[in-house]
Amino acid sequence: MADFHQNGNITTLHNLRTRDVAEMEAELNAFAATRKISLILPCLYSELEGDAMPHILTELSKVNYLHRIIIGLDAADEAQFRHAKAFFKDLNQNHIVIWNDSPRMLALGARLHELGLAPNEQGKGKNVWSSLGYLMSCADSSVMAIHDCDILTYNKEMLARLVYPVANPTFPYQVAKGYYARIGGGKLNGRVTRLLVSPLLIALNRVIGSRDYIDYLRSFRYPLSGEFAMRTAILPDLRIPSDWGLEIGVLSEAWRNLAPKAVCQVEISDAYDHKHQDLAADTAGSGLNRMSTDICKAIFRKLAADGTVFTPNIFRTLKATYYRCALDLLDGYYSDAKMNGLAIDRHTEENSIEMFAENIMRAGQVFLENPHETPFIPTWNRVHAADPTFLTDMHAAAQADEAAYQ
User: Fold this and answer.
1) Taxonomically, which superkingdom (predicted)?
2) Do 284 and 290 meet the contact criterion of CB atoms below 8 Å apart?
3) Count of alpha carbons within 13 Å of 356, Cβ hemisphere only?
4) pLDDT tens digits along 109-124
């Protein structure tokens, strides 16, 4: 996607195919001499058994500018934790596997529960939040990055391009969001972004009127990507959602805490493919069904926090407007796919749109019935205020697990 378009809301950093990655990595090595760069990998144990992770590790072993890699490991028993440590042992960088289900970590979770500060649910949000806490307890990194662990098309250039905007001390950016074309297997992918988020934001603009926050979200070419880089000074006050609204939630936090000129998006790949979630149309608590509902709630909550008043009538109108917008966009996606020799199943796509329309109403109903719902995990500043030794104790627990299980 070698264009140079800027829309004026946030800066877009394109890949104009004019620079070799080795040159960029040389600069990153120079930056890292005084501004240490760390990488967080939130993963499930099952991802260690897939096709993506071995290749990701091979590519990461070629990266010299990383100071530390933190692997947050979920859904693992003791034997699986030991296997995970062996799996990652060949990483060239200083690294640690944090066993989130270890007895020590569970005891720390009980401390948070007693304080009323425990995350509401397990999942990627809690994994990322815990890994950020460990990173802050190390107190030695200026830049951090996060990317998913199921990227089938991973290469080290993705990481270099992701961290460069926030690692370069002459750039103003505090947050960089990765974007890419979602194609793979001869198909146009990215259903939730294409068929839910994009038409929903258009519909919101029509129903509730223009909002700076909506224009901000619409500026991102792939708002649901799992690839972020940030300067670590903003981490203590970052509120991490515990549900599927993680990516939208982080963008909303950047909107809350930073000026638009401090946020950018950066093109990190020509083609990106990873594990695809099932639609799960008959199961509200799983797959894209659950994800789409949580994303809608995250957007509605942020708009309400900025003063938007929602009513049942607004949600009914929003559903109808969204449905028309989504079908109109589908015509464009179909033409785009066909022109590029990609497959697109219009029947399946329209089924997805119908489910997403229902979930807009479901999310609206949940929002109206539970106005006090707070799905955000408390900020690390708040945890520190309530328990000043917690971060130190968590760091010690992770190190103890590392030493105890060989």
Assistant:
1) Bacteria
2) yes
3) 30
4) 999 999 999 988 888 9
